[in-house]
Amino acid sequence: MKQLLPLLTATLLLGACGGNERPATTPDPEPAAVNVYSHRHYDTDKALFERFTQETGIPVNLVMADDDEVLARLEQEGASSPCDLLITSDAGRLGLAAERGLLQPSGDAGLDALVPAHLRDGQGRWYALTMRARVVAYHKDKVDPATITTYDDLTRPDWKGRLLVRSSANIYNQSLVSALVAHEGREKALAWCQGIVANMAREPKGGDTDQMLALAEGQGDVAIVNSYYAGKLLTSDEPEKQAAAQVIGIVFPSLGTHGTHVNVSGAGLAAHAPHKPEALKLLHFLLGSEAQAAFAEGNKEYPVRAGVPVAPVLQGFGELVPDSLPLEELARNNATAVMVMEEAGWR
């Protein structure tokens, strides 16, 4: 459901004129606002937008909607869209927005310098803001983490009936398979998906947190989840999640020799942005060290800026060695990934 959340509204005070009163003066122009369309629903983001307004005087108007709805709205509005900046999760989705002509090149070399090349669009149409890894959560009483070093390990017969994972409709699973297609080809990806389906403990349902709670309840022994969901569960003050945290460990599997699969949340300049300078200023702010640290601590995501500290709970998972695959490949291979998952029977 869409909702408009104005984080700051400028007020114009108009002087009255007449009789012996002072003549009206021309009011200062209202500052241009940045209109943000976002799929992200985190308090950390809203707090950062408020901080940006405090520091710059530029209001931020936030329109929130689900991922597909955000893109559909941009397409429907076309050249009359008020959107300045699109923020959404998953590099594949960002790539899709770029392919559909919904984003424009930033033309900003400073942004290119802030974000590693494999975490941004080659034409400057979108940039990663945060990073998350697709990790394996395991039951510490039932699993030796040394037995899981690669994603391929999850397809071994000894994991039959022990694996928990979301549905094939989930974009994070699609992007993991997209990365496998990019590295190993379609047939290898199909074989991997078939192995995953064969080892599922139940039909896929729920989100990443649901997989970890089910794991703690004994419905499975391992689960494929995003690192920030794990970080949030392990630091939660909710009793059910605190209990689950006691038995859950995390490992970073690798895609062969390529490192752990990572994905991003990112932002791109809308194709018809009416306030481009202000939008670029906000994008620079979100990639600044202070905002990157806030993303890391507040939402348990990995910063994309070098030198920004990682949240302590993520440090406890061990060292992340990320796959350096250019994330543009995730969008390029998404259609193949979806077909492969369907062919494998991944519901």
Can you walk through the features of this model?
Strands 1, 2, 3, 4, 5, 6, 7, 8, 9 and 10 form a ten-stranded mixed β-sheet that branches. The two termini are 26 Å apart. Helix 1 (43-56) runs antiparallel to helix 11. The protein is built from 14 helices and ten strands. The model is unreliable at 1-24 (pLDDT under 50). The protein is an alpha/beta fold and 347 residues long. The radius of gyration is 22 Å and the shape is globular.
Gross geometry? globular
How many domains?
A: 2
Low-pLDDT runs: 1-24
Q: Gyration radius, to the nearest Å?
A: 22 Å
* SSE order, one letter for each helix or strand: EEHEHEHHEEHHHEHHEEHHEHHH
What is the CATH level 1 assignment of the largest domain? Answer: Alpha Beta
Structural class: alpha/beta
- Residues in helix, %: 25-40%
Distance between the termini: 26 Å
CATH architecture descriptor text of the largest domain: 3-Layer(aba) Sandwich
